[in-house]
Every structure is written in structure tokens, then in C-alpha cells.
Design a protein that fits this description.
Beta-Lactamase, TIM Barrel, 3 domains, eight-stranded mixed β-barrel, five-stranded antiparallel beta sheet, 46% helix, 19% strand, binds ligand C2E, binds magnesium ion
């Protein structure tokens, strides 16, 4: 084709040329790339945008098929069979192409026939939808992110072992239930369930078995709960159950009973050599709300306190929280803190109460009695401290501390060579611990205390709870030269026959007997019989709790050798022992 000379063109041709130039200019300005092919797909025309996409001038592309032009540009997987597509859909269609670029382009390719022409050319337009695509990708990514965040959030509220909600998840559930309860009538209960002796399972069979047991317990508990109840694991061996929509509080107690029953069936772990049968047992504390005004923390705390009470009681394994329990438990918690503090600092106040020879009130020795204070300095009853130490497994350490501290005080006061004895109370738990006797012997050797100086006071309970172990320990201690006294004699299952069999050197008549012997003839006779028997068995006797001169007289006339009581002296701090006269004139305060 030859270009006509400008001067020879007719006005119409000039006008057409002008319009074509405008059209070219306009089509070059738009963002879409445009291509016109003939019926076989060879390029007849394209706009500037297509040139830019191809990075080559139109003249170099004329006559090439569109497919051949596109192939090097398209991402491998998305190269379409353009001829085939156009044959299939000659009326037009739309496909999406991925253009190899950095950043990648996403183009929508739309085609349609130019119906007025024969043979039919096709117009292809390439519309850049990268932004839309990246938006979708972004949306997809962000929905993945949301999923991930949801999964993370799920982990934050779920226990990984049992799949149950954890403390956070549970607090959320209570919060919602409390809000609903403000608009409804009825009751809501939180059941705090703690598996007894779970630590033993973990320590003996390993954590895998421990985890298996937790999963099994979660399963069993879920079987007895109702659809709306929320069971959660707070950690360790603690499970909690939220029950809503209760008509009466008793329904929660019945549910607690069912839970205990379901849990307590024997269970055997899998994958463990040998037949192991574990009998799980839970203690349950329950707190209630009927107005929905409590906080989740309050309800959990109260149920926890009630559970703690259930754990320390032998008669009940299900306890409902109430104010009385709360104050008792808070006291126990304060005692426990002071005990822990004493053990951390390895120091606890100990007082000493004299043993006197009843004939002349001459001091023969002292009984060490612990005098604990709580962290506010308020005295704690020794029996309460002992009870808390025993229930929290700290009794052995406490006993060791009292023994060491008393012996050290005795040594510092120069009483080791005085011929006076030191009596120390040992609890059943201490005596039953393997290696206990050896530890005591070691300590006494280290402090260079002559063994006959140390009198060990044990109660009958110690001998009843673990008869063989306790007897063995006492036998070892006596062999080492210590003396053993049976404390509070007369308060337990005392049988006089029994006395002959026990590995003891003496007994202490309980203060209840002493108190009543001057008013109750039969008690008087009983003490006379005990003293007679003790003489025959060559046992020493100390009468406890002598408060009045008539009690002293009565005991003295029956030939009771030793006594202890406020009449002679109250328990005294170690510093006062130095000034104590060797004969104690009775006081009557
Ligand atoms: P216990 O071993 O029978 O100690 C005698 C208790 O009677 C002491 O009470 C003592 O203060 C009290 N007492 C002594 N004379 C009289 C009196 O004339 N009248 C009255 N009403 N009471 C008198 P305390 O110190 O409160 O100790 C109570 C119990 O706590 C002790 O009874 C003992 O079983 C236990 N205990 C105290 N300290 C220890 C200890 O270090 N270890 C162990 N395992 N138990 C201890
Ligand atoms: Mg005692
Ligand atoms: Mg006693």
C-alpha cells in the first residue's frame, strides 16, 4: 500500500484521516489494551497500551497471531488456546490471564466479533484487574489470617490435652451465664472438681499416663453433664463445671454426686506394661448464684475454697461454699502461709514447759511446744498448725524444724549436761516416713546431744495408723538410746493390755483424766490402776495438765512420779529457762 500525496487527498479522505488520528489518539489514552485480529487470529491493529504490554511497536507485530504474541508473556499454566476459544465462542467471551511481570499482572481478556465485516475480524480488549485480584488475594490472605487468629484465639481458651475450655474460656462462659441470670430466675452453680492423688499417678506412671487419665476423666464427666453445662479444665488436676438453668441448688449437689460416681470407676491406662488399675476419686466444692451479681472470679474462688474443705475432710467429698467455711478456710490459708514462711526461713517460735518430779516439784525436763504466729503476728493454735501441716504434706519438715530448733536452744542454754530431758512431739506422718529414724539419729549426733536426753512423744493414733512402720521407727530410735513416751494416754483406743506390747518407755496421762480425777471417783481409780500397771511394766508416767494443788496432791499420793501443768509453769520461751528455779513453787494464776 502506498501513501497518497497529502495534496492529492479529497476533503473526505482528509476528514477520515483526521478522525482516524483522533481515534488512534483516544484509543492510545485508555488503560485497556486493544487488539483487532482477522478471522484467523492475525493481528491487524493494536493500541498503544498493547504496545506497552508487549514492549514492541505495532509494526513488528502486524500479521503475528495473537496467541503467538501472548505466549511468551503469559504465566505457563494460564496460556490459553485462543484460536480454540474463539472458535468455540465466536459470539464473544472473557477469560483471565496472568501476565508474567514483576509485580505480576492479572488481565481480563474479552473478545467479540465485528459482525459488520466479512470475514469477521475480532476485537480483543485486555483489562488490567490486578488490583481487584490482589484485593481478592488480600481478602483470601486476610481470611486465612482471621482463621489463624481464630485458631490462636481458640488455643488461648482451650486446654490442649483435653480439648476442653481452659480458665479463660470458662471465665467467659460464667460471665455470659451471670448476665443471663440477671434477666431470669433460677440458679447457677460452679462445681470445682479436684482429682485426689493425681500427683502420685504422674510420679509413678509418668505424665503420658497422667494425660490419658485426664482425657478419660473429661470424657466421663461430660457423659453425665447436660447439654448446656460447660466443663472446663483449669490446669493440673482441676476441672470445673458450670451448670445453668437450675431450679434448686440441690440439683447441683445431685449432679456432683453423679460426677463423683462416674469418675470413680476403676481405670487402666493403655500402653503400660503390667496390669495397672487406678481408682480415680474427686473432691468437689460448689458455689452458687441466684441473682447473677457475682463475678466469675468470686464464684471460682468460693468453689475452690469449698473444694479445699472437701479435700481435707474425711466424711464428705462434696462441700457447698458458705460464709463459715470461707472464714475457716481463710484462716487455714493464713496458717499455711505462716508455715511456709517458717520453713523458708527455717525458724519458728518454740516454748518449753517444765516436767517436774511430783514429790518435790523439782524440774526434770521440758516439753518443746511450738508457738506459731501468723504473718500479722496473731498466735496460731499449735493443734491448728499441725493439722494444716499434715493436710498439706509439710509435717515432716515442720517436725524436723521444731526438733532442730529445740535441740539448738537446749544446747545454747547449756542444758545438755544438766541431766534434764527434752521432750519433743512427733506426729504420725513423721514416724511413718521411711528414713525418719535415721534422720533424727543423724541430727542428734551432729549436735552432739546425748541420746537418753531426748524423749519422743507419740500419740496412740501414730501407732494405730501405721502400726508396723511406726513400731519399726520407734524400735530403731530406742535402740539408739532415745526414750519414747505415749502422749495423751486415755484419749484414744487405750487398752491396758496393749501397753505391755508397745515399744515405749513411759506414758503421759491426758489432761482430761487429771482434770476429773478429784471429782470423779472412777477416774481416780482408773489412774491408780494405770499407775500400778506402769510400775509393773517398768514404765515412767507423766501426768499432764495439773492446774490445781488438789490434783497435785491426789497424783502425788497415788505415787505418780512426774507431772506438767500450769500449776508449776506455763510453756516458756527459751530465754526464760535460764532464770527458772530448779524447784517450782506452785502458782495459781
Ligand atoms: P500435747 O503434746 O499434749 O501438749 C500439751 C498441751 O497441753 C500443750 O498445748 C500445753 O500448752 C497444754 N497444757 C500444759 N499444761 C496445761 C494445763 O495445766 N492446762 C491446760 N489447759 N493446758 C495445759 P499446746 O501447746 O496448745 O499444744 C497442743 C498440742 O499440739 C500438743 O499437745 C501436741 O499434740 C501438739 N503440738 C505442739 N507442738 C508440737 C510439735 O512441735 N510437734 C507436734 N507433732 N505436735 C505438737
Ligand atoms: Mg506432748
Ligand atoms: Mg499430751
Amino acid at each position: 500500500m502506498t501513501n497518497p500525496q497529502p495534496g492529492s487527498e479529497t476533503p473526505l479522505v482528509l476528514e477520515l484521516r483526521r478522525q482516524l488520528a483522533c481515534l488512534e489518539l483516544a484509543l492510545g489514552q485508555i488503560n485497556d489494551a486493544l487488539v483487532i485480529t482477522d478471522a484467523q487470529g492475525s493481528l491487524l491493529w493494536c493500541n498503544r497500551r498493547f504496545e506497552q504490554l508487549q514492549q514492541r511497536p505495532r509494526l513488528q507485530m502486524l500479521g503475528s497471531t495473537l496467541e503467538a504474541l501472548l505466549r511468551p508473556q503469559l504465566a505457563g499454566a494460564t496460556v490459553p488456546d485462543l484460536n480454540g476459544l474463539v472458535r468455540e465462542r465466536p459470539q464473544g467471551g472473557l477469560i483471565t490471564l496472568g501476565w508474567q511481570r514483576e509485580p505480576p499482572l492479572v488481565l481480563e481478556l474479552e473478545w467479540g466479533p465485528v459482525q459488520s465485516e466479512q470475514p469477521t475480524p475480532f476485537v480483543f480488549s485486555f483489562h488490567d484487574v490486578s488490583d481487584r485480584e490482589s484485593l481478592q488475594v488480600l481478602q483470601q490472605q486476610s481470611s486465612e489470617l482471621v482463621d489463624q487468629q481464630l485458631a490462636l484465639a481458640q488455643q488461648v481458651v482451650t486446654c490442649p490435652v483435653t480439648g476442653l475450655p481452659n480458665r479463660r474460656g470458662f471465665a467467659g462462659a460464667i460471665q455470659g451465664a451471670l448476665q443471663r441470670l440477671q434477666q431470669q430466675s433460677g440458679w447457677l452453680a460452679v462445681l470445682f472438681c479436684d482429682l485426689n492423688r493425681f500427683k502420685e499417678v504422674n510420679d509413678t506412671f509418668g505424665h503420658q499416663v497422667g494425660d490419658q487419665l485426664l482425657i478419660e476423666l473429661a470424657r466421663r464427666m461430660q457423659l453425665v453433664t447436660r447439654a448446656d453445662d460447660v466443663l472446663a479444665r483449669l490446669g493440673g488436676d482441676e476441672f470445673v463445671l458450670l451448670c445453668t438453668g437450675l431450679d434448686t441448688p440441690e440439683q447441683a449437689i445431685l449432679l456432683a454426686e453423679r460426677l463423683r460416681e462416674a469418675v470413680s470407676r476403676p481405670w487402666s491406662p493403655q500402653g503400660v506394661n503390667g496390669a495397672i488399675v487406678i481408682q480415680p476419686e474427686i473432691s468437689i466444692g460448689i458455689s452458687f448464684s441466684d441473682q447473677g451479681v457475682e463475678t466469675p472470679d468470686r464464684l471460682l474462688h468460693d468453689a475452690d475454697l469449698a473444694m479445699y474443705e472437701a479435700k481435707t475432710r474425711t466424711d464428705r467429698q462434696i462441700v457447698v461454699y458458705d460464709e463459715v467455711i470461707s472464714s475457716q478456710l481463710n484462716r487455714r490459708i493464713a496458717i499455711r502461709r505462716s508455715l511456709q514462711n517458717a520453713l523458708n526461713t527455717w525458724a519458728i517460735p518454740v516454748h518449753f514447759q517444765p516436767w517436774v518430779c511430783l514429790h518435790q516439784a523439782v524440774v526434770q525436763g521440758f516439753e518443746a511446744l511450738v508457738r506459731p504466729l501468723d504473718l500479722q503476728g496473731i498466735p496460731i493454735a499449735p493443734a491448728d498448725l499441725i493439722a494444716v501441716a499434715e493436710s498439706s504434706g509439710l509435717m515432716t519438715s515442720l517436725g524436723q524444724l521444731v526438733l532442730e530448733q529445740s535441740l539448738v536452744a537446749f544446747k545454747q542454754l547449756g542444758l545438755l549436761s544438766s541431766g534434764r530431758c527434752l521432750a519433743v512431739n512427733f506426729s504420725p506422718q513423721q514416724l511413718a516416713r521411711p528414713g525418719f529414724a535415721a534422720d533424727v539419729i543423724g541430727l542428734v549426733e551432729r549436735l552432739q546431744v546425748p541420746p537418753p536426753m531426748l524423749c519422743i512423744e507419740v500419740t496412740e493414733t501414730a501407732l494405730i495408723e501405721q502400726p508396723q512402720r511406726t513400731r519399726d521407727a520407734l524400735a530403731l530410735l530406742r535402740e539408739a538410746g532415745f526414750r519414747v513416751y505415749l502422749d495423751d494416754f486415755g484419749t484414744g483406743y487405750s487398752s491396758l493390755n496393749w501397753l505391755a506390747e508397745l515399744p515405749i518407755d513411759g506414758l503421759k496421762i491426758d489432761r482430761g483424766f487429771t482434770a476429773s480425777m478429784t471429782v470423779d471417783r472412777r477416774r481416780h481409780t482408773l489412774i491408780a490402776a494405770i499407775l500400778g500397771l506402769a510400775r509393773d511394766l517398768d514404765l515412767d508416767v507423766v501426768a499432764e495438765g495439773i492446774e490445781r494443788p488438789d490434783q497435785w496432791d491426789a497424783l502425788r499420793s497415788l505415787g505418780c512420779p512426774l507431772g506438767q501443768g500450769y500449776l508449776f509453769s506455763r510453756p516458756l520461751p527459751a530465754q526464760q529457762l535460764g532464770q527458772l528455779p530448779s524447784v517450782l513453787l506452785p502458782t495459781t494464776d
